[in-house]
């Protein structure tokens, strides 16, 4: 909201949050990328490495990317990207869930969810025994 990006989504008088928290998610992904890059650099060169990310800088970077010209693509005039290959479904106590699949792969294995989210209170809070 403070960066001004939400102003475009508002009514001209008040900003409105974007439908996806691109700044939060993008900055989190950049932080994770920075941590992995620092670990790789430490393995190659030794030492310790500092990673710094900023929500405001991510906002400026996203803003610099520009806007998509979506004239006449859907009812709101916004081009909708294809996301079918990024989504999966799972049966749950809440019905069928549609969710975004986790990104990436490690040694060819993609991360995945093996069970649906539990209902509130389904699992009692407890400390796991130490080994």
Please give the alpha-carbon distance between the first and last residues.
Answer: 46 Å
Give the rounded overall mean pLDDT.
83
What strand line-up does the widest sheet have?
Answer: 1-2
Question: Number of folding domains?
Answer: 1
Mass-distribution shape: extended
Helix content: 25-40%
Largest sheet: 2 strands, antiparallel
Oligomer: single chain
* Amount of beta strand: 5-15%
SSE pattern, N- to C-terminal = HHHEE
The counted number of beta strands is 2
Contiguous runs where pLDDT drops below 50 for at least 5 residues: none
Can you characterise this structure?
With 131 residues, the protein is of the alpha+beta class. The protein has one domain (5-100). 30% of the residues lie in helices and 9% in strands. The chain contains 3 helices and 2 strands, in the order αααββ. It has helices at residues 5-9, 22-45, 55-64; strands spanning 87-92, 95-100. Strands 1-2 form a two-stranded antiparallel ribbon. Strand 1 (87-92) and strand 2 form a beta hairpin. Helix 2 packs across helix 3. The longest helix has 24 residues, at 22-45. The radius of gyration is 20 Å and the shape is extended. The N and C termini lie far apart (46 Å).
């Amino acid at each position: 909201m403070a960066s001004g990006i939400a102003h475009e989504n508002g009514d001209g008088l008040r900003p409105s949050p974007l439908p996806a928290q691109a700044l939060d998610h993008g900055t989190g992904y950049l932080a994770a990328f920075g941590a992995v890059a620092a670990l790789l650099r430490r393995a190659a060169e030794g030492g310790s490495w500092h990673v710094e990310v900023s929500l405001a800088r991510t906002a400026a970077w996203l803003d610099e990317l520009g806007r998509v010209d979506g004239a006449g693509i859907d009812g709101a005039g916004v081009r909708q990207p294809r996301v079918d290959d990024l989504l999966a479904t799972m049966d749950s106590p809440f019905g069928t869930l549609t969710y975004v699949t986790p990104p990436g792969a490690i040694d060819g294995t993609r991360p995945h969810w093996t069970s649906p989210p539990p209902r509130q209170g389904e699992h009692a809070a407890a400390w796991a025994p130490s080994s």
